[in-house]
Fold this sequence. Notes:
The protein is mainly beta. It contains three helices and 17 strands.
Amino acid sequence: VLSVPWLTGTQVHAQTPTPVQIRVEITDQGFNGSPAGFTATVQQGQAVELTFVFAETTNVADTHVIELQGYNVQTDMIDYYHRESTLKFTADKAGTFDFACVVICSIHALLQNGHLVVTPASAASAGAAPAPPAAAAPAGSQQPTAIGVAAPGSVSLGQNVTVQAKLVGAGGVPIPKERIDFTTGTSFLQASGDMVLASATTDATGLAVAQFVARQSGSLTISAGFAGDGIYAAAKGNTQVTVTGNQQLYTQQAGVPLPGLNRAPSSDLYLTPEVVPNWFLSGWPIAAVLLVVWSLYGTAVWFMSEIPALGGEPAAPEEPAHRGFE
Ligand SMILES: [Cu+2]
């Protein structure tokens, strides 16, 4: 259905970017079940993906954040529900670097002895004299990336739009587990900026898929952006979607917005009328209140109108007396 104009590897340099993947389980006995500590070894200049996986079975309420000292990178929060987080970086500094949990948890002491050994690039070729730094792999430089974006060319107003973005590295190699933000340019009160429509994470084929509702007719530019990380450079791609139809989805509201009266009780943009009963959104609740108030007021006015009638009665017997003097 969709023609997918993925970018090919023409803009990227020929370089083998395959990162070394290291998986470390956080168990009740420490990193990879080893209370004595765990050591991973890589070579200087290599791209590294160091993945930490929650594997505790006893202290399932634990929360961890693992920090790799020296490279100053931290995982996202890892717990029973967010079981995996990957540190991505280029091992441009040689030496031994410690990684440890920086959140107080029930096995905290067991998570202080992780080590990453980065073997100097010069040691890779046996017997060679210490190589000048320039001989190492492009240290610290991020690998180039590209994003291809695809969406249906034309949709109707109010319809769901599916956008796909594919993130690739050198040679068109897909890059998984990266966040893609889908945005559209917007202008409001003479200020313009990017409005985030949705975010999605790339899968094993580098593909991120998001859906949003077309709420404005006309031509829409949708961008897919990757912020970049320790291994990969940032990238951005665009596509054009034409939204047809002139049905108005937003109703103009004048006056004071009162949640529950002329506005939905929540400011959630995606609140649909089915969530809130229709009678609640109409003016009937305030109409009922006004009816009660006005009927009380009317009753009070009626009682007040009785006062002159009561006060006038004692004067009535005097009138014949006046007539008597005439
Ligand atoms: Cu901890």
